[in-house]
Automatic annotation (TrEMBL):
Domain of life: Bacteria
Pfam families: Thiamine_BP
Domain Thiamine-binding protein per the UniProt entry, residue ranges: 5-97
Organism: Agrilactobacillus composti DSM 18527 = JCM 14202
Similarity section: Belongs to the UPF0045 family.
GO cellular component, one term: cytosol
Protein name, entry field: Thiamine-binding protein domain-containing protein
C-alpha cells in the first residue's frame, strides 16, 4: 500500500434527505472497492494502491451525480509514499479509538 486518500463529497442541496442519500451511494461504491476505508463525519479515508485510489477519486463525483446530485463539491487529500509503505488508517488513528 503506497497511498491513502481522504475524500469529502458535498452535494449542494438544502434537502438533507437527498444529501444523505447521495453520500450513502458514494460510500456504498467505496465499500464495494474492497479496500480498507474509514467513514467519519466529514470525509472517508481509503488506503490502497495510488492508481486504484485515483480511479475511485475519478468515479466518486459521477456516482454522486447518478444518485441525484446536480452540483457536487468534492474535496480530496492525497498521501502518496514514493518508496516503501504509507502509514495506514490504523497506524494514524488506533491510539485515539475509544
Amino acid at each position: 500500500m503506497n497511498a491513502s486518500v481522504a475524500i469529502q463529497v458535498l452535494p449542494m442541496s438544502e434537502d438533507t434527505t437527498k444529501v444523505l442519500h447521495i453520500v450513502d451511494q458514494v460510500i456504498e461504491y467505496i465499500q464495494a472497492q474492497g479496500l480498507t476505508y474509514q467513514v467519519s463525519a466529514f470525509e472517508t479515508t481509503i488506503d490502497g494502491d495510488y492508481d486504484k485510489l485515483m480511479q475511485i477519486v475519478t468515479e466518486v463525483p459521477k456516482i454522486a451525480a447518478k444518485a441525484g446530485g446536480d452540483s457536487i463539491m468534492t474535496y480530496v487529500k492525497i498521501n502518496y509514499q514514493a518508496k516503501g509503505d504509507a502509514l495506514t488508517i490504523e497506524d494514524k488513528t488506533k491510539k485515539y479509538e475509544h
